Every structure is written in C-alpha cells, then in structure tokens.
User: What shape does this take?
Amino acid sequence: MAALNARLEAERRGRFAESLCVWSLRLRGWRILERRLAGKRGLGVGEIDIVAKRGKVVAFIEVKARTSETAALEAVTVAQRARIARAAEIFIARFPGGDACDVRFDVMTVSGFLPVHLIDAWRP
Assistant: This one.
C-alpha cells in the first residue's frame, strides 16, 4: 500500500511539474503541440512530455521534478534519450513542414516553484 501511495504521489508531482512547464513555455511564446505524446507499446518509442514550437524550432522536452538540475539531467538515461529521439523522428515525419524545422531536445526541471529550462540538453 505504501508503494502504491508513493507511486501516486510521484505521478501527481510529475503532472504538476509538467503543468508548470507548459505555462512557463506559453508565457515565453511557445506553442504547445502535444503533451504526453506516446507511441504504441512494444515499439521502443518513448513518451515525450511536451512538444513545443516557437518559430522554426520544435523542442521535445522531458520534464523532471527533482531536487537539482544535475539530478534531473542524470535521471534522463541514455535508453530514455534514444526512445524519445525515435518518437521525435516519427512526430517530425508526420508534422506538416516538419522537415523545415530545427529540432532540439530540452529538459525542464522543477525543484521549487519555478521551472528551469535546460536548452539543447542532449543530441541523439
């Protein structure tokens, strides 16, 4: 029961962190294209927390609610990055004008109330 409560609390904290990040992005002129974009199970395609666009840039953003930026970056594993990159490829291929967009992978951390946006956190 305690494990279930901890999981539910982590899920609640994660959704709240994503909402803070979405509002932060919108206030800075980003258009949110997708939230919690997930592929079919078993295909090795990861869930993308936020897909946002501003100008020619499409950012695939992983949100981490952690105690520090370092802990957040460490929480994005190599395997997770690969799954997110595969999902991003599929999204861009289906997105109108996607081939003309500049793609990047960001991480947003929430350790207090205000999110921190780590731009171009990794390259596939």
About this structure: The chain has a mean pLDDT of 88.
